[in-house]
User: Which sequence fits this backbone?
């Protein structure tokens, strides 16, 4: 192949490189949608538990479809993990949500509270073509009544092959006491 | 300009796009170096304070050189911020480290403790060409003695034009009580 | 009444006042013994749980024999109670230690951790004939390993008819984060 | 001694036992009054600070008149003390309220927040002739706005020679995170 033809080929590649990511750009709306889905998932786990349903299956689907464990490492620090603060495997994440895991006796099952609503309040977003980060407070409404519980979060999202956002970063923490 | 010349130009651009990011790839070593620099900066602020030096200037340089406030939004949730949990401006970040800011009366000056050492223990990393995230615990050694204080963190780094890592994400939290 | 008769009366009064309370005086040793018994009780509940024993019965005896619910109001604020911070009935106290109470879904069972040791470190005591207060830190050693967990306490003790100390005040709290 | 003489003796003893303590009996109203005075004192320290007044003198009077340091040991665990959790001397207590004490660099001055209101909500009381204990939540309203901060307390009161309640026990803690 002649040199100028090679250059032309590369030229087309360049255009592809410049446009393809644009088509994948992550928007604030996508982040908000992913957050609403996550909140609904946590509520669904608790509802299955209250209704004597297969809440563990609901939790497993929650983790499998919303987190990025199948795409690589996930950086997950749940709110109430003490002994094992960081949950880098799918099993550890499921355990956090529903408990009953002998390897993690500390897990009472965060989602079994149960919660009837989760409301996100993003304070700041970082959006790129490949990655998005959201920081803010979320508020969990307990089924037994009382004020929603305020918790701080950072979520990091990447896109899977179907273009769905998946969480590969989740740092959740109780606010510093006043 | 003729069409094939245009294509050639784009071709050169493509090469630039394909090689430049590779040259910018963020490594674990770069992250660890950035963390060591951050820790040394916090210690330096406290040392300036103890020595009646211009600790506010040291803190300002710490924030200006290590965070990405000049490159866009920064997502910063310091450990001990209660009223204003999120610090998205440089002034708010400086206030957190040294206090004395009338707009943030809650800030006692985190770096004025002072601390004599900061040790990072990364639990997991997410490394890409453009962005890196590190999660783990850091341990702050108080000057007055006693055990190091354990704090959880997530740091997100981007590269500036000189190729230095800059923090555009910093979520710091006290561990959930046992 | 003649003067010598009055003196005799006063004499009896003096003897009565000086001896009766003296016989009931609460000592530091009694407080320490009561604390050791409480710690052993918490460990025993967890051991019964680990051994598939009747841990609820062990917990009930722990509460019935060491607290003063049958002598009047008990002021009890356990460490990890959030929704129902204060436990003023025996049922509420048992629930805190072993969970499984539909009225207190938040209770995971503090003593089921389980803990293998509880060590008291009194910081200050207030001792009178009728009442004693102890304040300090206690350290709970988790069965799954790791550092003992430090918790702050205030215990108030009164004596029952058999002369045993009973807890009518128990305020337990996690230390303020550093 | 003749039988009627013995009866007289016992009679005097009975009268003495029944009247003397009765005159010293501590009531719920006295406790509530002492709590209101304590809250007003904390607000007054902050107001003096805001008005560039001698807030340290106000804090010293607060501690001298409301606590029992001059009557014996005081068991005091303030909310935000980390390094020195327990404050058993008057100096340590004053330091907690207003800071500026080189021996306690951790003290930022709890009362300098400042707070504009303190509201007590007693959950349970233990009242005897000589001693009273109150347990509950108090709510501190920050001057800069925002929701009142909820804090848990146990207060123990004894009477001084003038019949005023004095705090010899004060355990204050942030609620366990939800």
Assistant:
């Amino acid at each position: 192949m002649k040199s100028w033809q090679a250059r032309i080929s590369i030229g087309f590649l360049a255009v592809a490189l410049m446009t393809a990511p644009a088509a994948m750009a992550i928007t604030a709306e996508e982040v908000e949608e992913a957050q609403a889905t996550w909140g609904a998932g946590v509520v669904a786990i608790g509802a299955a538990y209250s209704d004597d349903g297969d809440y563990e299956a609901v939790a497993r689907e929650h983790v499998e479809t919303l987190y990025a464990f199948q795409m690589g490492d996930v950086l997950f620090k749940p709110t109430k993990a003490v002994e094992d603060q960081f949950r880098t495997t799918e099993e550890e994440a499921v355990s956090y949500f529903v408990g009953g895991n002998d390897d993690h006796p500390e897990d009472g099952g965060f989602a079994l509270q149960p919660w009837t609503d989760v409301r996100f309040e993003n304070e700041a977003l970082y959006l790129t073509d490949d990655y998005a980060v959201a920081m803010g407070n979320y508020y969990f409404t307990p089924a037994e009544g009382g004020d929603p519980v305020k918790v701080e979060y950072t979520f990091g999202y990447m896109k899977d092959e179907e273009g769905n956002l998946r969480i590969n970063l989740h740092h959740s923490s109780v606010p510093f006491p006043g």
Chain A has a mean pLDDT of 89.
